[in-house]
Amino acid sequence: MTQSSSATATVKGPNGSLNVALGEATPEQILPWCGIVTAAFAPSFPSSAFFAHEEYLAQHPLTLNQGTRFWCIYLADDPTTLLAVTKTVRRQFLVRDSESVHEETGYCIGYVGTHPDYRRLGLASLLIKHVAEWLDGPADATASMLYTSVGDFYVGQGWDMIPSMVSNITHPSDEFQSVDRKGLPSTRLLTDKEIPALCERDVADLKQNFDELTVGPDEVHVAVIPSAEMVSWLHTWGDFLNDKLRGGEGPYPHGAICESANTWIYWHYGFKHLAIDRVVGQGSPEVLAALLLDVLEEARKWKFPKVVAWEPSPELIKAMDLISKRAGVEVETVTRPNSITSLRWKNADKTKKTTLHLNETYASC
């Protein structure tokens, strides 16, 4: 893939016409890029710290070889004044159509933000259109995903919103308590060295499940491959935050396993909550309850007031009901009000009915 060339446009600004350019950010534009992101999504987080965060993530396997690209719109006569930003992060998809199961390359779009002085001018639409043209052209991306609270905006750009649920586990006192595990199966924390082998097993099971699907000519099934590279992305992302925001020091645990039930769970540290990234296996509600208590213990350690899980299975919902009684926590499962999953096929192709599998947090960016 080649470096994206810049384009130019004229837009109506608050004080008259603006001549702007758009394309990939230069190294000199990354710091102001971070400033717009923090203003839009994490105003209490200094842009210099966010810049250091991106440098930290740049060493992750998912970002190497231009796996992450930064995009922006800026004043044509002042490249240091950025008006709108976003970024793309590479990922691998498993696709099952009526002919075969195959792996494809795509991207996740994240941090779509506009400078406060230049909002409601159509700049985000202009930038996303430019990125979509890159995805369809030089990137040759089979599919792309994003997570948003304004899904209708992206439908007009070719992305389809996918129904998405979330479970929120909270404690009335804002601090989880240690809980008696009597009657529950034994679990243990995972080490990071164990995660790649578990991911290999997970991916093998996913491919077998896709092989066994019966798919009509007007259908397509897709999942972000839960490889070690993908699963560890948010672990790395959250570890930096835990260091800077909560004074932690790695290595941190990122999961737990119930070996007798061949079931495990991953998590990462967020800005204000602990997130369950993926639940793997067919464990009973009692097994999952034991693993959830490991998650709650980690949340208690770092004083997180909330644990979230995307797309909880019926068994996980039953497990949360079990711990709600045992641990005195409140559980709410609702349609996601934000971070709604949206997917776009190359060239905004909508000719086939899409089923997304594993719509869990590990696949987000």
UniProtKB/TrEMBL annotation:
What top-level branch of life does the organism fall under? Eukaryota
Query: What positions does the domain N-acetyltransferase occupy?
Result: 20-170
What molecular function terms (GO) are annotated for this protein?
A: acyltransferase activity, transferring groups other than amino-acyl groups
Matching CDD domains, A to Z? NAT_SF
In terms of InterPro entries, this protein maps to: Acyl_CoA_acyltransferase, GNAT_dom, GNAT_LYC1-like, LAT
Q: What is this protein called?
A: N-acetyltransferase domain-containing protein
Question: Which organism is this protein's natural source?
Answer: Hypocrea atroviridis (strain ATCC 20476 / IMI 206040) (Trichoderma atroviride)
